[in-house]
Amino acid sequence: MARRRESYGAVLFIDLDNFKTFNDALGHASGDALLSQIAQRLVQRVRAGDTVVRRGGDEFLVVLPDLGDDLALTSYEARRVADKLRDGIAEPIYLGGRQLHVTPSIGITLFPQNGDKPEEVLQHAEVAMYRAKQAGRDGIRFYAPDMQAAAESRLQLQNDLRHALNAGELMLHYQPQIDSLGRMRGVEALLRWQHGKHGMISPAEFIPVAEETGLILSIGHWVLQQACRQIVAWQRAGVNMGSVAVNVSARQFHQADFVTRVERILVETGADPRRLELELTETMLLDNIGEAVDKMQVLRRRGVRFSIDDFGTGYSSLAYLKQLPLDRLKIDQSFVRELTLESKDAAIVRAVLSMAGHLGFEVIAEGVETAAQQQALLELGCTLYQGYHPGRPVAADKLPLHLAP
Ligand code: C2E
Ligand code: MG
Ligand code: MG
Predict the structure, then answer these.
(1) What is the sign, positive or negative, of the torsion defined by CA atoms of 23, 25, 30, 33?
(2) Residue at 389 is within a domain
(3) Residue to mutate, 165, 173, 247, 306, ligand 1, most ligand atoms under 8 Å from C-beta
(4) Which of 24, 56, 71, 364 is exposed most, by the fewest CB atoms within 10 A?
(5) What is the DSSP-derived secondary structure letter of residue 341?
(6) Based on the domain organization, do 194 and 79 belong to the same domain?
(7) Is residue 40 in a domain?
């Protein structure tokens, strides 16, 4: 049609963010209901001649066949429709007594400008969608030719990550957590990938890839095993490292058998559960607070500790805080970076400390890079610190053992 009329059209590739998490948490029947509600919203928001398709899973395509013959207007119009669809999806969804917030990542490509073979157009829209996801989800991106190369290297990264575990390229580093007297009170285990060709790759780069592909489940399991083995090694050597904190990803935590998996690892390794701390994030607890509390309570009865990572950056809901069996809040680095006693950050740190105190939680500040920051934190009443100033993440045998109490 576009070729005959010499006009432009657009294809929108819509992928829901974190749908797997919703699906795991809610069950598949509710996941289906969620998809059909979203499909209805899409259909209601396009014109009669447009086409909405469910491509599979949580992926939808919208074809806008005739947007006129002016390229600039076409992109403007396609963007406007994408915004409208995104807003439609973002409206709260009520399912089984819960209120859910779903966001999409949307890729847009124009045709025939960016190719006129159907497969080509679809692939471009998909590549643009991936770019939107990569940019932090809940976004809209237009296809640009250089995205193709980026998409290929991402695919390569996925493949390499699949082999990384077996090839022994993954390892854990440990970052000290110290108190105001300079004693080591615990460590955080941080994943490292020593890639055969590209050298060290940051977890910030490969954890999202691992989550997308589901590889995070086997990687997360390995991390837990590894951390527990390390706990035992320190137990045997007679060093008191305090707690060993392990980051748990949403998909891992939402697994139906998460609790059993952790229990089994504790038994198999012989690690003292009181030495293990699991770091969760606010966002992953909100989806299904009841289930989260249940899981936490079972493990906590065995002695496992829980903390909230990056506290203050998620959907901070005070209602959930009082329900959770927590030990620690980790104040996010964004409140520490420009911290001075007079700053607004100081007001937030004070409020968190006071609230945590009343709720019976410890508070540790993350990303402490300077002595001045640590001093300001101390004056505000925060006595636990993690960051480059107290110590960078290092291999287990490079930790400053003399700081262990
Ligand atoms: P996170 O859990 O908030 O970990 C803290 C991050 O801040 C680490 O980055 C650490 O190296 C960095 N950091 C520590 N002190 C400082 C400081 O003073 N200044 C600055 N600028 N940064 C500091 P890293 O190791 O790159 O990890 C990034 C994120 O990757 C982690 O954030 C965590 O969300 C995730 N991650 C790391 N290991 C694992 C893992 O085993 N499993 C899962 N699911 N996620 C992991
Ligand atoms: Mg962490
Ligand atoms: Mg953090």
Answers:
(1) negative
(2) yes
(3) 247
(4) 56
(5) T
(6) no
(7) yes
